[in-house]
Amino acid sequence: MPDRDSLQFAILGPLEVTAAGTPVTLGGAQRKVLMTVLLLEAGKAVPIPRLMEVIWGDSPPEKALRTHVSELRRVMADDKPPRVLLRKGAGYLLDGRAEQIDAERVRRLLAQGRRAVDDSDPVSAIAPLQEAQSLWRGPPLADVADHPFAHGYAAALSELQLDVAKTRIAADLSLGRHREVIGDLRMLVDRHPHDDGLRREMVVAFFRDGRTENAAQACRDGLEALHERGLDSPMLRRLQEDVLRGAPSLAWAPPRSLGRPAQAAPAGSGSHQLPPDAPEYTGRDTIQARAHAVLTDQTALARGTVTAAFAGKAGAGKAGAGKTALA
Predict the structure, then answer these.
(1) Residue 26 domain flag
(2) Which domain holds residue 217?
(3) Is residue 327 part of a domain?
(4) Where is the OmpR/PhoB-type domain (predicted)?
(5) pTM
(6) Residue 35 contacts residue 150 (beta carbons within 8 Å)
(7) Is residue 156 part of a domain?
(8) Which contiguous run of DSSP H or E holds residue 91?
C-alpha cells in the first residue's frame, strides 16, 4: 500500500493525483473542487464554511463535506496517521511537501534559475527552468476553471508560467541564443502585447541577430500598443534610440560562467617564441572563414564544446598549398 510520501499532486493542467506512480481516481466534480482548494492552500487550514461555500454555494447538504474528505482519504490510502489530509481546528489542511505539488516545485525551480541568471551563470539556469516548463500540461486548474473561486488562482499560476518563460529567455539570451528565442518571444508578445519587458527582450534578440529594422519595428509596435491604452514606456523609447544608433550596450557579451579570460603569458614567452611569418600564403580565405564560423558558434560556446583541430604534413609544399586542413 502506498504511503503519504509516494503521493504526487498536479494542478498545472487537469487535476491529477498519483500514488507511487499510479493514478488515483478522485471521483466527481465536487471532490475535485475540494482537492483543488486544499492544494492551492497547501499547508494552511481552510475553514469548513469556506470549503462548503466554494463547493455548494449557499445551501450545502449536511455531512456531505465529511463524506468527501473520507472518500479522498480512502482513494489515497490516507486512512492512517500520519495523514496528508488533516482536520485542523475548524478546517481541513493538506499537509503535502513542496516537492509533492507541481506548482510548488515550479516555484522552487524558478527561484533556482533566477539565482543562476542573477549570478551570471545562465548555463546552470537552463536545466531547472526546462524542468519547470515541462511540468505544465495545459491551462492551470483546467477541471475547475469555470468556478469563480478559481479565477484569481488561475491568473496567478499563469503569471508564474510567464515568469518561468521570461527567465528562460533571459538565460538563453545571455548564452548568445538570440535567433533561437525569437519564435517564443513573438508568441509571448502576441499574448502579452503590453508587457514592455517582453518587448525589450524581443528587440534585443532581433538586434543581436543583425535584424536592426525588425528591432526598431518591435519598439514602434510596443509603443503604439501602449499608446492605445494611454500608456507610455520611457524604457522602450530609450531602447529605440539605442537600436537606431547601434549602441554597443546592446551587443552580446559572454557571461562569466562561460570561461575566464586568458591569463597573461609569463615573461620571455608568447610572441617571441612564435615562428617567423610565412613569406607567402596561399588559400587563406576559405580556411579562415571556416575557422571563424566554428569559433563563433555561440550555442556551442555556451556548451563548452567548441574544438578546432588542424591536421597536415610538414614540409610538403609552400604555405597555404593544402598541407593543413581544418578538422
Answers:
(1) yes
(2) 177-253
(3) no
(4) 1-96
(5) 0.77
(6) no
(7) no
(8) strand 91-94
C-alpha cell belonging to residue 256: 562569466
**Which three cell numbers mark 11?**
494542478
The backbone torsions φ and ψ at residue 10, rounded to the nearest 5 degrees and listed phi first, read -130, 125
Query: What string of pLDDT tens digits covers the 327 residues of the chain?
Result: 456 788 999 999 999 999 999 999 999 999 999 999 999 999 999 999 999 999 998 777 778 999 999 999 999 988 777 889 999 999 999 999 999 999 999 999 999 999 999 999 999 999 999 999 999 999 999 999 999 999 999 999 999 999 999 999 999 999 999 999 999 999 999 999 999 999 999 999 999 999 999 999 999 999 999 999 999 999 999 999 999 999 999 999 998 777 544 443 343 333 333 333 444 444 444 444 344 444 444 444 444 455 544 444 444 444 444 444 445
SS3 content of the chain, % helix, strand, coil (to 5): 55, 10, 35
In a domain, 146, yes or no: no
